Amino acid sequence: MKVKKVKPEAVRNLNKFLTKRLERIATMMELLTEAHDDWAITGKKDYILLETETYDFNDAIKILKEQGFDGSEFILKVEYTRKWGVL
Q: How far is CA 8 from CA 5, 12, 19, 20, 80, in A?
């Protein structure tokens, strides 16, 4: 979206919004890395990705919700791999 006549106050408001949002993201990262130490953390263009195969999905949600985060502030995805074995 292109905007004409951007005013200085609009830039300041964006700064305040981004600062607050980035602080929330950093807090989420701190909570999760303090709760579990086996994360692969990758910075992407539009998001930060934390991946692990050794921490329970429900525990992560519980920690975040206990600290006042709601589901609109993060996306948690679970992937399962089917493994075949011989009995």
A: 10, 6, 17, 19, 48
